[in-house]
Design goal:
Signal peptide: 1-20
CATH class of the domain at 14-146: Alpha Beta
Number of helices: 4
Pfam families: Lectin_C
Distance between the termini: 71 Å
Number of strands: 8
CATH superfamily of the domain at 14-146: Mannose-Binding Protein A, subunit A
Keywords: Disulfide bond, Signal
Oligomer: single chain
Organism: Leptotrombidium deliense
Protein name: Ladderlectin-like protein
Strand content: 15-25%
Helix content: 40-55%
Shape: rod-shaped
Strand order of the largest sheet: 1-2-8-3
Amino acid sequence: MNKIHLIVLLITHLCINCYSEYTGRQVVRHIDGCFFSEGVYRNFYQMKQYCESIDGSLVPIHSFHDNALLRRAFPSDVTFLGACRRDKKWDWVDKKPHSFDFWKDNEPNNAGGHENCIEFINGGQHDGKWNDVSCHRRMYTVCKIRDCEAFVAKEKELERKELENNMEKSFKKIISSMNAELLASLKSNFTNFANDVHRRINETLLEMTSEITEDLRRKSKLN
């Protein structure tokens, strides 16, 4: 396999890896914007801050339709809904009145008096159900994005830059490896050349010594 084929294979492998990493970040569009999810686990406060940093929010749910959409927005796991208990009421991030719920049986129970956030269960026996939990638990990150088109465009640009950076790193590794191989080859060739020159010089010196010795013998006989 020549070096060109090797480079192509390495770049292809690199691009496949980049794409696989990127698809861990998922965007699901719907009529009222879009959901963004990624396999990073955050507590309620961290997730709220992160969602706001990407021009989004934690997900508010006010209908069975909203609930069904969220079930399709991320892999089977759990996430926080955009609500927090205040004075025995649920305060939603979009400030809309509480008009819908889908609690598990015997929930919410505020066990221990510290379950002030809502867990959304995606998959399993309680698929789509809610449960009140501690806000300090860590869950799969899901955000509702305000401007879907702008967000997707930004994600694609980030993907492009990440791909370029990884390709540049890969090229540097390949060039470094090729340079090391070239230097080793040059060193080996130079050593072989030097040994060959040394051998030829020795052979020439031996021949000259032999000729001089023979010439001296002839002169000695003549005298």
